[in-house]
């Protein structure tokens, strides 16, 4: 009995819970520690499953979103738990053949066509409402780099003939509303070009430098409530047309750019007593550089404030932006003022990033699971890792720029799974993490080590095949989808010109 009820045993913890009450407000934390013993313990390699592109779980755990390989159809599953029986002790037997099929774990709710013949679903784009009632998807036509220059378009930004956002009811797949953008460019990769906060959605048009604020009504309608770009207030255009008789069209800077320049001017003016010389060096000398800045990315901080990243045209359309000069602005939509401005090498902004990183995750979840996503603002282990990286960096300025490259925060890009909780488990973040990104596939299993017992490996996740045999010359990438609270995960390995391999990891 002493051996059975040893420390760390799941049954022992259940008994202890009956006698020991957690501190007020700490019940959820105590329950979450049970995941140290409730871990995926069995893997089905190369499971028999449809040839779909699996996107993610919603954080209420009810839906698994997938897309067809031709990027035309949306398929939504509901997770179910594997059940089977055997006459003898089940642990000594292999699973029956039926249990090794995808439909033993997931039930298909529906499959609907979302894209037309010349459009494709953006497989990296999916946002869901806090209530999990609606999901937002996007389709687009092919990108063109030789688009004609139209009035108001930024030179150097490519064009897409049509981009359409669809609001879908997740329960039954009914398309409730759609919003289309023509001859525009919105960065749909990993949902970078859109941010959802409560019922407000901001969509960033890179080509026309416009921030579209759209409200998602309870009725299932997408209603555009504001545009920020050429004009900041609703009556700006009317005012200009009424008071400017000639020269209107090309003689004015966009409203958001005017706000930016005004803020830089006032900030420079107030820095030193000798304003004239200082303005020449700091403002007028770089005036054209400031004018050439474009909006890269936007997120909500709350219902009234936007966090906007400005940079060069080249950095706005390229994948790597670490080394490009960039500015971060906090913009008040009600007053149309820029409240504060930071350069991407600012130590002050890095200090805010280190201490208040969770405030940049301005997407409050009804579910308590989202509150447990580990960051250096709420977890001492993550903070120690960040400070160790900073101490090892050869250049403090380059390190700050590298960290600032993740801002503004990408909406719904982190898994709330307890197995990514850094207060419970350790793992190699180069191979796997809570952030939704593809990783280079490893030949060795990824170990999840207990924080409480540093020498104990709680479980392993092995992507790829069971035999481990593979062509080392082929480039392989892996992605991981963890259920928000079940001990259930999918590891998906993709190799060029070869079938996709899907493994299911679960607690048997």
UniProtKB/TrEMBL annotation:
InterPro entries: 6-hairpin_glycosidase_sf (IPR008928), De-etiolated_protein_1_Det1 (IPR019138)
Top-level taxon of origin: Eukaryota
Protein name: Light-mediated development protein DET1
């Amino acid at each position: 009995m002493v051996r059975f009820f040893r420390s760390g045993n799941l049954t022992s913890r259940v008994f202890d819970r009956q006698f020991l009450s957690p501190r007020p407000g700490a019940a959820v934390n105590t329950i979450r520690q049970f995941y140290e013993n409730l871990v995926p313990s069995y893997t089905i390699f190369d499971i028999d499953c449809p040839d779909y592109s699996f996107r993610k779980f919603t954080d209420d755990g009810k839906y698994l979103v997938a897309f067809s390989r031709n990027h035309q159809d949306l398929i939504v599953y509901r997770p179910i738990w594997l059940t089977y029986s055997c006459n003898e002790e089940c642990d000594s037997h292999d699973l029956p053949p039926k249990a090794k099929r995808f439909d033993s774990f997931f039930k298909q709710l529906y499959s609907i066509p979302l894209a037309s013949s010349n459009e494709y679903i953006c497989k990296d784009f999916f946002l869901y409402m806090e209530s999990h009632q609606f999901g937002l998807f996007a389709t687009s036509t092919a990108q063109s780099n030789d688009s004609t220059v139209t009035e108001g378009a930024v030179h150097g930004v490519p064009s897409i003939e049509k981009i359409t956002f669809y609001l879908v009811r997740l329960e039954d797949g009914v398309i409730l509303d759609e919003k289309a953008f023509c001859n525009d460019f919105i960065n749909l990769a990993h949902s970078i070009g859109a941010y959802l906060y409560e019922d407000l959605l901001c969509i960033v048009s890179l080509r026309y430098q416009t921030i579209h604020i759209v409200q998602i009504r309870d009725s299932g309608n997408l209603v555009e409530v504001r545009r920020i770009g050429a004009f900041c207030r609703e009556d700006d255009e009317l005012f200009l047309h009424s008071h400017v008789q000639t020269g209107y069209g090309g003689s004015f800077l966009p409203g958001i750019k005017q706000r930016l320049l005004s803020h830089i001017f006032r900030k420079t003016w107030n820095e030193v007593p000798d304003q004239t010389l200082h303005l020449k060096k700091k403002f007028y000398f770089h005036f054209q550089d400031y004018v050439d800045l474009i909006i890269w990315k936007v997120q909500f901080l709350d219902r009234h404030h936007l966090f906007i990243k400005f940079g060069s045209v080249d950095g706005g359309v390229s994948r790597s932006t670490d080394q490009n000069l960039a500015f971060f602005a906090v913009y008040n939509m009600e007053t149309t003022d820029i409240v504060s401005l930071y350069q991407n090498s600012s130590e002050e902004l890095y200090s805010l990033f280190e201490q208040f990183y969770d405030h940049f995750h301005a997407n409050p979840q009804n579910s308590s699971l989202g509150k447990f996503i580990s960051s250096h603002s709420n977890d001492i282990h993550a903070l120690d890792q960040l400070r160790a990286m900073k101490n090892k960096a050869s250049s403090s300025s380059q390190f700050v720029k590298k960290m600032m490259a993740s801002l503004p925060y990408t909406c719904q890009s982190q898994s709330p799974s307890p197995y990514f909780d850094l207060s419970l488990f350790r793992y190699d973040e180069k191979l796997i993490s809570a952030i939704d990104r593809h990783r280079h596939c490893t030949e060795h299993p990824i170990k999840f080590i207990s924080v409480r017992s540093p020498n104990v490996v709680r479980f392993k996740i092995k992507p790829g095949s069971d035999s481990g045999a593979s062509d080392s010359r082929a480039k392989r990438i892996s992605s991981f989808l963890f259920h928000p609270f079940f001990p259930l995960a999918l590891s998906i390995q993709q190799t060029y010109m070869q079938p996709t391999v899907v493994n299911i990891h679960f607690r048997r």
